[in-house]
Structures are given as structure tokens and as C-alpha cells.
Amino acid sequence: MARPARPDLAAMMVPLGRSLIAAELPILQSHDLKMWAYIVLLELREEPTRTQAALAQAIGADKTRIIGVLDELAERGLIRRTPDPQDRRARLLAITPAGKRLRDAVQRDIQANEERLLARLAPADRRGFLRGLQFLAELPPEEIAG
Amino acid sequence: MARPARPDLAAMMVPLGRSLIAAELPILQSHDLKMWAYIVLLELREEPTRTQAALAQAIGADKTRIIGVLDELAERGLIRRTPDPQDRRARLLAITPAGKRLRDAVQRDIQANEERLLARLAPADRRGFLRGLQFLAELPPEEIAG
């Protein structure tokens, strides 16, 4: 049988993902934001809903690692923590207007760099690449494993 | 300004890459091959050319980590090591016919699972996704950073 016409998906995606993360770091730094803090701001909504434990699980972070990140975001007025009326030991989290402004500014800078790369693709490839990537990224991990 | 219409590329690609790696592991195991051994087999050619140091650098592996992997591949007759005529302390590496057969069998299984996922995309998206991914994956990391 002939050899496959393309590299394995993971062999292309893992190093490219690493390079894209590296490209985000100076942008995050220019906004004085750590990667985990950015991920938290992306995850939170305006209505306080998530407990710290649920947030840590949703973003795949260690619960203890996230505490310092949340403390710093709260001190900078980027998130708000309120006691959970259902469970006084738990705290609900929400993003503040200042947090949203910072999150959006960082994301605009990150995606401006990404658009510079995507502009090198033919328009049909750019569209198919983004649609395909978004579809596959939304599949549950267990469907990927088959 | 409006929020971007899509997640950041790295936010989609890094977890998806991780899931694709996880999907490879049982396939590799069914062929009794470790991930690094598979990566070595993908990298080597039939003509002995690479020294162990050059191979380790090419695949981004630690030089000491790779030695045990190469020993095992050589014992199983999947790679061949010959002294470098230019430098008697160095050794050249090549894949054997048995190594090629195993590499191709593993890659066929891995890509069969990937094709199952890609088949869920519309044909134009599948084509654009693969063309876009291959183009971006071949860019030097320093071009990604901008």
C-alpha cells in the first residue's frame, strides 16, 4: 500500500499549537496578563455563576494553581467574587466591565496576529481551515479517540 | 468594537492536538511502539544519513532520552546504526525494510481514525482544513510569532 499523502494531524497540530501559544505570550505580557488569567477571563460571563472549583475543572487547571490567578484578577478589578447563596462556603465568579475590556483588547491583538497568518491562505482554504478546525475542536474528546 | 467571531487558534488547536495524541496511543500500543519510537521511524530515511545528535534535534527530543528508544528499535531490527565514515565517534541511522513496514502500518491505522473524523466535514471544508493546516504547520516558528 502507498504511504499516506499527508503527515498525521497531531504531528502538524501539536508543534503549530505550541508556536501559536508562543506568539500569544508577548501579547499577554504587553497587557500584563498571565496565560491562565487570560483563560479565566475568556471563560467567565457577566452573571456570577461558576464556583472556583467548577471554573478550574472547565479550563483544565489545577484548583490550587488557579487561586493565586483569581486573587490577582480580583485585586485588579477584572473579576468579581460573591458568596454563593446556595452554599456559603463556595464563591461565585463573574467578569467585570474592566475585565471584559482587557479580555477583548488582548483577544483582538492575538487574533490580529493570527489573521496575518491566515491571510496567506487562499480564501477557500482559509474558510475551510477555520470551519474544519472549529468543528473538530468542538467534538468531545471521546469522539476523537473513536 | 465587536468581540471576535471565533475562538483563538491556539485555544482550539492545543486541546484538539492533545485529543489526537491520546487517540494515537492505543494504536501505537497495539503495534508495541512508543510515541518517540514512532516519531523516530517517521523521521529516518533508507540511506543512512543522520547522526543520533542530529536526529534528536530534528524531532525536538532530549539526546539522552532518545538513546534507549534507538537501542530498542535497533534490537527489533527496525533501524540500522552504522559508524559515520567522516567521524568514527558518531553513528549514522537508517530505517530498515521491517521498520518501514511497521511505520506504514501504524500510520495507516492512525490516519484511518483521522479520516473517520475528517469525513464529518463538508468536502470543501475537509480540503481547506488540510491544506490550511499543512501550510501553517510548515511555516517556521519565527514566522508564526510575527
Question: Can you put this structure into words, describing what you see?
Answer:
Two copies of one chain form a homodimer. Helices cover 64% and strands 12% of the residues of chain A. By secondary structure, chain A is mainly alpha-helical. Chain A has a domain at 29-124: Winged helix-like DNA-binding domain superfamily/Winged helix DNA-binding domain (Arc Repressor Mutant, subunit A, Orthogonal Bundle). In chain A, strands 1-3-2 form a three-stranded antiparallel beta sheet. In chain A, a hairpin with a 2-residue loop joins strand 2 and strand 3. Chain A is globular. The two termini of chain A are 23 Å apart. The model of chain A has no long low-confidence stretch (mean pLDDT 93).
Keywords:
64% helix; 146 residues; homodimer; three-stranded antiparallel sheet
Percent helix among the residues of chain A?
A: 55-70%
Mean pLDDT of chain A: 93
Assembly state of the chains shown: homodimer
Number of helices of chain A: 7
For this structure, what is the CATH class of the domain at 29-124 in chain A?
A: Mainly Alpha
CATH topology of the domain at 29-124 in chain A: Arc Repressor Mutant, subunit A
Question: Biggest chain pair contact, residues each?
Answer: A-B, 59 and 59 residues
- CATH architecture grouping of the domain at 29-124 in chain A: Orthogonal Bundle
Main beta sheet of chain A, described? Answer: 3 strands, antiparallel
Measured distance between first and last alpha carbons of chain A = 23 Å
Report the CATH superfamily of the domain at 29-124 in chain A.
Answer: Winged helix-like DNA-binding domain superfamily/Winged helix DNA-binding domain
Task: Decide which structural class fits the backbone of chain A.
Answer: mainly alpha
